[in-house]
């Protein structure tokens, strides 16, 4: 059986042919899909981008001079600027500078962890103390501003800045190193009865600014 076709009727045997308006919509859809795929490729490429940053490989005590053996360069993913990390080309801003606070091994170097000048300012001295009964206020940390009360009658008061907080015997009892005026250092070092008062931190001259 054959189909009769009118002259010039060639609709049978041909594939689907969308109208011009539909073809334009399809083309637009393909273009949008291509842009989306390209955007995803760029996104995943950026996630895989790595940056070389500086990492500490030694425990650094507050006030220590940082040497080249204390740091190394590693690669990380992400933007180092969001955490103010030190990139490999800025390693000179860390080496031969002083630690502002205790820095554990493995920490990534930040511009806020170091400074150009020694932690102990001119005219000051650092003294190790053991408060009476090894008691220290809650919240006391390195660079806390404190007032030392010396003697049973509390007649002598000395303002100080905590340089480091230690635990010599592993039982959670604290010992401190504090920065005091050089003239107060002998009496603080010799004090047999000493209590610590935690004060408002105010502005720490050793850590003000980026160093």
| Mean pLDDT across residues | 77
Spatial ordering of strands, largest sheet: 5-8-7-6-9
Helix content: 10-25%
- Contiguous low-pLDDT stretches (5 residues minimum) are 30-46
Distance between the termini: 96 Å
Order of helices and strands: HEEEEEEEEHE
- Beta-strand residue percentage: 25-35%
Number of helices: 2
Count the beta strands: 9
Shape: elongated
Structure description:
- The protein is α+β, with helices and mostly antiparallel strands and about 210 residues long.
- Among the domains are: about 70 residues, Antifreeze-like/N-acetylneuraminic acid synthase C-terminal domain (Type Iii Antifreeze Protein Isoform Hplc 12); about 80 residues.
- The strands form three sheets. It has a five-stranded antiparallel beta sheet. Strands 1-2 form a two-stranded antiparallel ribbon. Strands 3-4 form a two-stranded antiparallel ribbon.
- Strand 6 and strand 7 form a beta hairpin.
- About 10% of the residues have low confidence.
What's the layout of helices and strands?
Blueprint: H1 20-47, E1 50-56, E2 71-77, E3 98-99, E4 114-115, E5 124-129, E6 145-150, E7 156-166, E8 175-181, H2 185-190, E9 194-198
Antiparallel strand pairs: 1-2, 3-4, 5-8, 6-7, 6-9, 7-8
Structure characteristics:
alpha+beta; 211 residues; 5-stranded antiparallel beta sheet; Type Iii Antifreeze Protein Isoform Hplc 12; 9 strands
């Amino acid at each position: 059986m054959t189909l009769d076709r009118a002259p010039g009727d060639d609709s049978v045997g041909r594939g689907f042919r969308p109208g011009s308006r539909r073809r334009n919509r399809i083309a637009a859809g393909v273009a949008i899909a291509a842009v989306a795929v390209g955007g995803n490729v760029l996104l995943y490429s950026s996630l895989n981008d790595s940056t070389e940053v500086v990492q500490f490989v030694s425990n650094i005590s507050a006030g220590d001079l940082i040497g080249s053996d204390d740091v190394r360069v590693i690669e990380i993913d992400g933007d180092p600027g969001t955490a103010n990390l030190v990139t490999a080309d800025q390693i000179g801003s860390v080496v031969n500078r002083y630690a502002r606070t205790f820095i554990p091994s493995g920490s990534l170097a930040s511009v806020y962890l170091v400074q150009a000048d020694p932690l102990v300012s001119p005219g000051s001295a650092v003294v190790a103390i053991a408060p009476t009964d090894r008691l220290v206020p809650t919240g006391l940390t390195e660079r806390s501003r404190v007032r030392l009360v010396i003697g049973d009658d509390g007649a002598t008061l000395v303002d100080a800045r905590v340089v480091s907080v230690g635990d010599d015997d592993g039982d959670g009892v604290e010992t401190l190193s504090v920065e005091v005026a050089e003239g107060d250092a002998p009496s603080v070092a010799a004090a047999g009865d000493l209590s610590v008062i935690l004060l408002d931190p105010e502005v720490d001259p050793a850590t003000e600014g980026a160093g």
